[in-house]
Amino acid sequence: MQVGDITYIPTWEGWLTALGVGTVVPHESTLRRVLQKVDPVAVEAALRSWVLTQLDAQPRAAWRW
User: Fold this and answer.
1) For the whole prediction, is pTM greater than 0.70?
2) How many alpha carbons fall within 13 Å on the CB side of residue 59?
3) What is the 3-state secondary structure (H, E, C) of the chain?
4) Which of 4-8, 19-23, 32-36 has the highest mean pLDDT?
5) Lesser CB count within 10 Å: N end or C end of the chain?
């Protein structure tokens, strides 16, 4: 697997590499502290924007009803 491979990201190593962090997994308390400070509305808006961008970039399938 390589960093650009879609199957690479779901692993801890993939997430950390994508975030620019080394391969050492942060301690649970560090992750908890960071996640408690994250604005859930901002995260949802950022994820929604990213997903919509990804969907728009894909070719549209021909729908037949």
Assistant:
1) no
2) 2
3) CCCCCCCCCCCHHHHHHHCCCCCCCCCHHHHHHHHHHCCHHHHHHHHHHHHHHHHHHCCCCCCCC
4) 32-36
5) C
